[in-house]
Structures are given as C-alpha cells and as structure tokens.
Amino acid sequence: MAEQSRSALDYLEKTSDFLVKVLLAGLVAATFYATGIGLIDAVLQRTSIVAVSIIICVVSSGWLKNRDRYADNPVKGLLHLCADIAILAVGVFAAWNAWFVIESQQETIYELTTFDAVVSIGGILVALEMCRRMWGWSLFTVAALAVIYLAFGQDLPWIFQHTGADIFEIADNLWYNSNKSVFGSITNIIISIVFIFLIFGTLLEASGAGPTLLKFAFIVTRRMRGGPAHAAILASSLFGTMSGSPVANIVGTGTFTIPMIKKRGFSPSFAAGIEATASSGGQIMPPIMGAAALVMADITSTPYLSVIIAALIPALLYYFSLFTSVVVEARRQGISPEPLAIEDRLTRQDLINSIMFIVPITIVIVALVLGFSTALAGFSAVVGLIIVSVINPDVRQNPLKLISGMLRGANSGAKLMMAIIAIGLIVGTIDSTGLGLKLATVMSAVRGESLLAALFMAMAGALVLGMGMPTLPAYLIIILILGPALQNLGTAVLTAHMFVFYYGVASSLTPPVAIAAYAAAPIANANPFTTSFMALRLGAAKFVIPFAFAFYPSMLLIFGFDGLELTWTIIRVAFAVWLISTALGAYELVGMNVAELILRLAAALGLLITMPEVQMGSFALGVALIGYHYLKFRIQVKAAGTAA
C-alpha cells in the first residue's frame, strides 16, 4: 500500500513538473512575442505572468517537492499542502480579479466592492508568503512592514504618521493601481525588458560559451602573478554583466576558478572572497550590467546607451582595485606566474565558440547605438545567439540544451517576480503615504548644507536596506526611499541612481548578510563569515568610487566636462584605489607597518577631497610613501643578498 502511494505521488510530481515546463515555455513564448514581434495588452500581460509565476514557484517550493522532510511530522506536511492549495487558488484568482478590475476602471467608472477588497488582501498575503519562500526573510520583512505601516501608520509619531487607509484604500493602492502597485510600472519593466535578458544569460551558458569565455580569461591573465585569481576577475566581469546575478555568476564561474585559485596557493577565504567580489561587480560592468541597469534606464528616462557609458569608468576602476588586491596577495605569498596547463590552452573549437559571445554582445551594442529599444536589442541578441550556437558540436548533438537554457531563464524570471510583487507593495505604500518625501525633508534638515553627510546617510541606508536581497529589489527599495533626498541636494538624477545602485551591489558583500560571500564560501570550503570580511576588504573600492563620481560627475562621461580635468580626476581616483588596496592588504613589495597604513589611507582620502591644494599635497604624500616603500624593499633585498 505504501509503495502504491509513493508511486502515485511520484507520478503526480512528474505531472506537476511537466505542467511547470509548459508554463515556462509559455513565459518564453510570451517574452519573445512581446519583445520582438508585437504588443500584448499591458494589464493582461502583467496579471497573467504574475499568476503563472505564482504557480511555478508554488510547485517548485511546495509540499510535493519537499514531502520527504515531513516523513516524521505528517501534520506539518498536511499544513504545507493546505497552504500550497490555498496559495494557488487565492493567488491565481486574485490576479485574474486584478485584471478584471483594472480593465473595468480603464473602460468606465468602477467602484471597488467589498469582495474586491477582500480578494486583494488575499492576494497581498500570497505575495508576501511567496516572497518569503523564494527570497527569505529580509525582503519579506520589509514588504510586510510596509503593508502594516499603510494599515496602521496613522497611530505612529513624527514623520511616520499618515492619514490612514481603510481596506478599500489598501486594495486600491497596493493591488489595483496599474501605475504603482503589484501590477504597476516596475512589474511592467521587469516583464518587458528584464525577462529577455534573463533568458539571454542562461542561454549563453547553455550554448557552451561560458567555458570558452573562462579559457580566454585564463589566456589573457596567464603571465600575471595571480593567474586563476585574475582569470576569475576577468571571467566574472564578462559573465556577470550578462547574468546579472552574483550567485548565478559564482556558480557559473566559481566552480571552475575557486579550486584553481586554491591550487595556486591562495587561502580558501581569499579564493572565495575574490570570486564573490568579482561576481558581484559584474552587475556594474557594461555593456549589459545585469537587470538593474535596464530598470535604471527606464525609471530615469535615460537612454540605456547613456547608462552604460556612465558606468564604464567607475566599473574599470573597481576591477582595477580587484586586480591590485590579487597582485598584493600574490606578492605577499610569493606566488609567481606558472606555465599554462595543456587543458587551459585554446583549441580550434574554442576560437570558433568565441563567436557565441562576441556576436550577441555586438548585436546588443549595435542595436542600442542605432536607437532600437532595449527589449528589441535583447530579443535580437537571443535570436543571434541561437543561430550561431549551431557552431558548437555539443549543441548540434543535443539542441534541447538551448530549450533547457531558455526554460531556466524563464524560471529565474518567475522567481524574480516574487520579489517584484513584494516591491510593488513597498512602492504602493511609499507613494500613498508620502514617506519618501518626508524622509528626504528630514535628511535635508539633518545634513544642513553638507553633501558628504547626505551621501554617508544614503550609503548607510542603502547597505542596511539591501542586506540579504538580490540587487534589483535592493536597488529599487533604496532609490524609492533615498532617491528624492539625493536629488534634493542638486545631485543629477542619474548620478543619484548610480550612487544608490553601487551600494545596492555592495550590500551583497557587506557582513553580516553578505549573500555573495556566503554563496562562494561552500565552494572553497571556507568559513562564510571569514569570507564575507575578506570580500569586504577586497571590494573596498566599491565603497569609495561612488563618492568619487558623486563629487566629480565628469567621471560618468555624460555630463559636461573638461578633458584635462577628467584625466586628472581619473589619475587621482586610480591612485587612491591603489593606496587603499595596498594599505588594506598591508603589503606592496614588502610588509607595511601601522604608520604606513595610516598615511596611505590618509593620502587616499586627501586625493578625493575637492580642494586642489589638498589633492596636490596628498598626491605628493602618496608618491613619497611609494618611494619610501621601494627604498625599504631595495634595502631588504640587499640585506638578504649579503646574508646569503
């Protein structure tokens, strides 16, 4: 009897898996149609994709998939099963009702009924629970507090008090508002733009371009001391800009690079830390910059091409700091370049496979330069990648790999939707209560006339709000709350967004919830907490560079600037990055004492201050410190030679 029951459950699981694949295929087809062929009714598209995403995520996280965990606690298992059924029924019906109500409101005067309001509350609860299942407690907590705040904030003191909201206002603001709510403009951006790039990222991996990309990285960095560590930085920057996910990037490249970094002689925590920092940095590296940059372009009404141009110099400076950190660590441990292993050498097929990442990236850039929409650029890149992937014999032998890759991309999109509907709850709350503008007013009063103080407040808020969240939800929450305050300071809209975006990315490296470091640590068999602090040290430049372009917007290249001034700014910031990286590593050519560390950090700080006399003095101090360090190195070498 037990065997029959288990067989029936296995059959049911296979059936549900098939249903999920059908729904994922539908998401892929809808994405292709909407980005490259024709328009779909906006409300129908949003509500149906949210409903389908709920079904996919419930099945993947439901009782059926986890039934073995409840073998010793059948009551808990039964509750999980009942919750799954309720979520499916309520979530899908609430999405359908949202389509009906929003369409009715657009066509005629429609007043919400009590039934509509109750259904919306059910939908909100489903959104919160699915966010918790897919993304953990951090984002769930923020979204839940936002809903509670909207419902009961009228009893709070100070700026947090608002006029209150009854059940109809909650329903209207959080569920049935097609501009700022669960089915609002942000959901539309994700569906219309981000989905196609998620499919592009997974398809790139499925086509076999990933391993070839990694080989090219090893070839380019073969003469460097860090070897595989430098290759990890290069590969992660290229792969990460396309995947848009630090964790996916770590899994995609870290499984190859981390063992090789350890084999070269680096510590496990360093191997995991450098992979985490490089992978998270992929999101700030043009030309694609993951999903958040696509959203930034749409929210700020800035051409996407301008966004990637603005991101170029800061991203290069960040990766310069990572290369510096590896050089410092390699010198400290006495690691030298090694001959390239036979298996790492490029073959004829590798050269052919390189077409698979050169062609789609070229298509994206050319399409954007010609003025095509971001969505169409993504669609064209996917089509181009599918066409050229036939050059890979593995794809020709098993073309289903491409379909599997596209389905994985759609699955990532469905999972992302659970975060986005939670973001919709936060957006609706902020919009209806005016909390963002109130916080902006308070920040303006607290900071006085100090831009530096306001930037520090924004940085702290961004790091706290972004902890434990994927970059896109973190960036959206942070910019919604802190963006108005930065713009009130006279900071350009794109500069404010870039500043917040950087710290949204940096939050994935910040203890205690350093999600990127925690993903890399198990691969290296390293302590997650130690890895998070190593990643924080290695990625320290990510905390400095945003202040540099906030005070010197010319670094973003899209504002008016003088060529000579820009060159001097880049030299100063690069020099500051070098001084910080070597100081935090306590090594350059030989070890440093505490006085040298302090003086290097002071010189780096002075290089970023706006007063010219301080800049020149700090530059001179930095040069003197490097000269002194080189002299100390020569003395030690001479002493060692004499002793020998």
Structural class, please?
A: mainly alpha
Portion in beta strands: under 5%
Helix content: over 70%
Counted up, domains total 3
Which regions are unreliable across 5 or more consecutive residues at pLDDT < 50?
Answer: none
Q: Which outline best applies?
A: globular
Q: Could you state the order of secondary-structure elements as H and E?
A: HHHHHHHHHHHHHHHHHHHHHHHHHHHHH
- Number of helical runs? 29
Radius of gyration: 26 Å
- Terminal residue distance: 81 Å
What is the number of beta strands? 0
Could you describe the largest sheet, including whether it forms a barrel?
none
Could you report the average pLDDT, rounded to the nearest whole number? 82
Note down, in words, how this protein is organized.
This protein has 644 residues and is an all-alpha fold. It folds into 3 domains: 18-176, no CATH class; 187-419, no CATH class; 576-644, no CATH class. 77% of the residues lie in helices and 0% in strands. The protein contains 29 helices and no strands. The protein has helices spanning 2-36, 42-61, 63-66, 74-107, 114-135, 137-152, 167-174, 185-206, 209-220, 228-243, 246-264, 268-281, 290-299, 304-332, 348-353, 355-369, 374-388, 393-397, 400-433, 435-447, 451-466, 471-488, 493-506, 515-524, 528-538, 541-551, 563-585, 594-608, 612-643. Helix 11 packs parallel to helix 24. It starts with a helix and ends with a helix. The mean pLDDT is 82.
